[in-house]
Design a protein that fits this description.
This protein has 291 residues and is mainly alpha-helical. The protein contains ten helices and two strands, in the order H-H-E-E-H-H-H-H-H-H-H-H. 44% of the residues are buried.
């Protein structure tokens, strides 16, 4: 995943932010327990939202404990303790991390990323595939087709975004089980489209320099960020706002059994603020800093 689906903290109740952070820390600790400490570096905000959403959709009971963190061994934080559903989310995150690393290596042939995947991620990826074969197949099919279309410089960007969006939708259906609904699938599908196009617009500078595929650079001669935003900003705004509108429409019909405050903040405010930041940005919008 990427790191764009974040809460709008200024408009978030303290209780909801505390709960969201507990999910983030819980995902991080669950990754460490299931995959080893180095794999905790793959913790990200998008998968944290996915974890909260799946738990809310299924009404899965969670247990909170106060624990210290390897980054702060003195101050204790609230942490969602690992459970069977969280373990499935961890497996999905591990598999996604592998395919993201493979994609990055294919793009820029980074020796560091190749080494990280071969020495750290790949062996945990193999274990995750054995534990969660259905999730592995969903992700494999989606990324294989996505990479093929990008390699062919496909000009139908909706078709390319569809591959990533379908991965999120099918993972939601798999993990939610009988609690899955068409509204939940539609929300996650359009969130996948939003993330794909947000990342493309945000990464245009780097992709242009490296001559990598980018949905907004097809048949476009890149000069500088200011010119790019002026030329492509209206197109990007239309696409991102259409995705956002579909997410909001679907959210109205999603039946959540818990954590509605956390998810409402992210969907109503977080995505809106991120859309505006991406369209007007002067710096990178992708979030990597820990909470």
């Amino acid at each position: 995943m990427f790191g764009y689906v974040i809460p709008d903290k200024p408009n978030m109740f303290i209780k909801d932010f505390t709960l969201y952070r507990a999910f983030y820390c819980g995902l991080c600790k669950s990754i460490g327990k299931r995959c080893g400490q180095l794999m905790r570096l793959t913790t990200n905000y998008d998968m944290t939202f996915f974890s909260v959403f799946i738990h809310a959709l299924t009404g899965t009971t969670t247990e909170i404990s106060n624990e210290v963190c390897i980054l702060n061994p003195v101050r204790k934080k609230s942490v969602i303790k690992s459970n069977p559903l969280m373990e499935k989310v961890v497996d999905a995150n591990t598999i996604l991390a592998h395919f993201k690393a493979v994609d990055d290596v294919a793009d820029d042939n980074s020796a560091g990323k190749k080494l990280a995947d071969s020495l750290v991620i790949k062996r945990h990826y193999k274990k995750a595939c054995k534990r969660s074969p259905e999730a592995a197949e969903i992700i494999r099919q989606g990324f294989t087709e996505l990479n093929r279309l990008e390699a062919e410089r496909c000009e139908n960007v909706d078709l390319i975004a569809h591959q990533f969006a379908t991965v999120l939708k099918d993972l939601t259906k798999l993990l939610a089980g009988e609690d899955y609904s068409d509204a939940a699938g539609t929300l996650m599908y359009n969130l996948g489209r939003w993330v794909y196009f947000a990342d493309a617009f945000d990464d245009a500078d780097e992709d242009a320099k490296k001559k990598e595929f980018n949905a907004f650079l097809i048949n476009y001669e890149y000069k500088d960020r200011e010119t790019f935003v002026k030329d492509k900003g209206e197109e990007a705004a239309f696409i991102l706002n259409c995705c956002y509108k579909e997410i909001m429409n679907a959210f109205d019909s999603v039946k959540l059994k818990s954590y509605e405050g956390v998810i409402t903040n992210i969907v109503w405010y977080g995505l809106r603020e991120q859309t505006d930041r991406i369209l007007r940005r002067t710096d990178k919008c992708k979030q990597k800093t820990r909470i």
